[in-house]
């Protein structure tokens, strides 16, 4: 019989290890309800693959629901597959020189779950868990390369008046993306910038919501259901960036993350200014249209 070993509520330990639930829950979970990366996927690839607009809702909304179902499955695997004390020791090790390994915790949970429920040897179940993670990573990297290729093509158009022919090649831009990813992996530099990924991702999410709000407002449609989340995500992201900068990066003299954090704060302020200007423009256009009528 399966038993769930993890406590239902563990706010004290979670806060001590990860920080307060707000804002860090909303920047740690970099997908699910909202995600900047997903907005790029929707605009860069998904929109080019659907055959008609009516397919958007079941694909987009259904995809997010499936992600939520996947999250529940992960919690069941970790909560039932291994003891909570083992999970904590793997993900938050206290021994000197031991690194956190959340992937191992998930894989061990899958192995334990398959052993208890199906009688499969936990060794094989653990290997299956690792392969499961790898499958998600590979498909994510494939999408990331494609999106980066699109973004690079746009960057070249901003930098060069006449873009060199080689920079228009999808092979060149894809190779450049893979090469940069290889450098980050080979030097282990990704470990240094990963902690701030969540904030950057949700900053992009708030920008996407602002863009959608402007599009809706321009067409005289209801906007509150995108404006309110945009404000919430912007405030959450800004607070998290300032909190991380003041409490972690500056005290530890982490120059790299401090500079990236400050850059993201500047970008967030820039997004707010652009949103305000767009709102003023839409108000003026609306007033002008009203007077003309």
Overview of the structural elements:
Helix 3 crosses helix 7, helix 4 crosses helix 6 (102-118) and helix 7 (122-159) crosses helix 8 (170-186). This protein has twelve helices and no strands. The protein has a domain at 192-277. The protein is globular and about 65 Å long. The mean pLDDT is 87. The chain is mainly α. It starts with 10 loop residues before the first helix and ends with a helix. The longest helix has 38 residues, at 122-159. Helix content is 77%, strand content 0%.
Question: Which structural traits does this protein have?
Answer:
293 residues, 12 helices, 77% helix, 0% strand
Give the topology.
Layout (H helix, E strand, L loop, with lengths): L10 H8 L2 H8 L7 H14 L6 H26 L2 H8 L10 H17 L3 H38 L10 H17 L3 H4 L3 H22 L5 H26 L5 H38 L1
């Amino acid at each position: 019989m399966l038993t769930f070993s993890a406590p239902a509520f563990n706010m004290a330990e979670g806060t001590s290890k990860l920080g307060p639930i707000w804002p860090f829950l909303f920047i740690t979970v970099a997908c699910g309800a909202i995600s900047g990366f997903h907005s790029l996927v929707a605009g860069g690839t998904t929109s080019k693959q659907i055959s008609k607009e009516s397919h958007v809702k079941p694909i987009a909304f259904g995809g997010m629901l499936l992600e939520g179902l996947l999250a529940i499955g992960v919690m069941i695997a970790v909560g039932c597959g291994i003891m909570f004390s083992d999970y904590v020791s793997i993900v938050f090790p206290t021994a000197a020189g031991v690194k956190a390994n959340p992937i191992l915790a998930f894989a061990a949970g899958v192995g334990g779950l398959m052993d208890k429920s199906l009688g499969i040897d936990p060794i094989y179940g653990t290997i299956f868990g690792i392969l499961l993670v790898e499958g998600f990573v590979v498909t994510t990297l494939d999408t990331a390369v494609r999106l980066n290729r699109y973004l690079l093509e746009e960057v070249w158009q901003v930098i060069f008046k006449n873009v060199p022919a080689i920079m228009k090649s999808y092979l060149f831009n894809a190779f450049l993306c893979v090469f940069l990813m290889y450098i980050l992996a080979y030097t282990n530099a990704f470990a240094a910038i990963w902690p701030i990924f969540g904030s950057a991702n949700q900053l992009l999410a708030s920008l996407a919501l602002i863009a959608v709000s402007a599009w809706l407002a321009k067409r005289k449609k209801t906007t509150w259901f995108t404006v309110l989340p945009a404000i919430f995500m912007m405030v959450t992201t800004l607070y998290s960036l300032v909190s991380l900068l003041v409490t972690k990066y500056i005290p530890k003299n982490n120059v790299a993350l401090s500079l990236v954090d400050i850059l993201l704060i500047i970008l967030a302020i820039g997004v707010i200014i652009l949103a305000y200007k767009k709102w003023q423009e839409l108000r003026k256009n609306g007033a002008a249209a009203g007077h003309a009528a």
